[in-house]
Amino acid sequence: MNALEQFTPLMDAVISHIHEGVILTDYKGKILFHNPAADELLGFPKFDSVGEIQAATGIDLHKSLMAPANGELVTGRTVIDQHRFEQRITRNGKTRFLEVNATMVPVPGEPAPLHLMVMSDITDRRRLQAVLNDSRTSGLITQDPRMIEIAAMIEHIAPTRASVLLQGESGTGKSLLARMIHGKSKRKGAPMVEVNCAAIPETLLESELFGHVRGAFTGATQDREGRLQAADGGALFLDEISELPLHLQPKLLKALEEQCFEMVGSDKTVKVDVRIIAASNQNLRDLVDSGDFRADLYYRLAVIPVEIPALRDRPGDIPLLIRHICDQLVSRGYPANVDCDEEAMQLMMDYPWPGNVRELTNAVEHGMILAKNGRVNAGALPFDIRHYHKHNNHAAVRSQQAAAGSPAATETDPHKREILDALEDSGGNRAEAARKLGIDRSTLWRRMHRLNLI
To answer: Hey, where are the domains in the chain?
Structure first.
């Protein structure tokens, strides 16, 4: 048995199960070995030569044969040429981008080195780069028409000083959009100060916003400027603005309209130049109608209202976001070249993401941590994603049983009546129902799905 006959079985044993496509040829281009991943990437398993590959797919692998193919020797060793190129191919109406790394492999006893080509699918990476380079998206990771429309709006409104109200579910990226608006504004050289109205106790919120003077209240041992003063010349981002107490809303309205206010405990007027960007995961218009938010403040904040769609309403962005999140995690020290198998990707595409992009980010990190041999499978995903899939399957079975008159159709859950009562008391407002139940909106959403209430 010559060296080549020994080499090929070794390739088969070691490389058949990796995710990159591998092709081994002689110096004339005759294929000596190809693994299943190469067959899948090329879309056809029965190639005999690189010429046939080019004829069927357009991939010019002859580039890898252009190096010294006759075994040129330097100091007793074969010159090993290595190079990389990219190729765009279209198979069955789908376009993909492949990265090909080619090198020569000297084999003892053979008159010329063999040529080894390793192919990787970089389609997601190229699409992500296209999105980032697309001026329409304003830097957002999206292909969704509504998000592209929002990106275009940002380009128009950022240079102005108009107040912007960002509304959308928790985790949809309201803070990111606020920073983008400020970063594209004429005020970008000044700070954007962020205040989470839900995270600061009501008794301290007035002081946080407007500042206080010494002796204004117990513990006020010195003057302290508020967030409005800190944002002078820049922008103030009021997150969760729906949580601003009613008694503070008139003072904030006056500060926004007149660009002046009094610190707590003082009668001296402080002048500022501040742009306001606000965000809410509740619909402020609904809160105005219910009397929980002042109409005049709402109209002052919502000069430019922006509704951000939930992630489940733009599933085409999920693969792009996953790739972007992976790249960010790699920059933080996570391993590169971690892949996601088809089942895991399908679970993520089917999952409704009540926590939106924030939940997706956590799920991707969870998957990378639990990946095995550089592969994220279904078992590496968080419990909620796996449970949702199983629950949907069980729900389909129960539906079939109900249609057949099975006793299982009468199965109930003690939480169901509680949720229905809360929704009825809240007039169908899920945010209000969640508050009555003492849970967050995402938890309510998951329970409603589990109970087939959505």
So the answer is: 3-121, 145-308, 314-411
Taking each helix axis from N to C end, the angle separating 202-210 and 249-258, rounded to the nearest 10 degrees, works out to: 10
Fold of domain 3-121: Beta-Lactamase (3.30.450)
Query: Per-residue pLDDT for 75 more than 70?
Result: no
| pTM for the model | 0.66
314-411: CATH number: 1.10.8.60
Which CATH code is given to the segment(s) 145-308? Answer: 3.40.50.300
Q: CA–CA separation, 350 vs 125, rounded Å?
A: 22
At how many degrees (to 10) do helices 318-331 and 356-370 cross? 60
| pLDDT tens digits, 351-375 | 999 999 999 999 999 999 999 988 9
Most distant CA atoms of the chain, gap in Å = 98
Rounded CA separation 131/129 (Å): 5
Q: Which residues contact 452 (CB under 8 A, 6 or more apart)?
A: 395
| Burial 146-171, CB ≥16 within 10 A → b, else e | ebbebbebbeebbeeeebbbbbbbbb
Q: Which amino acid is at 89?
A: I
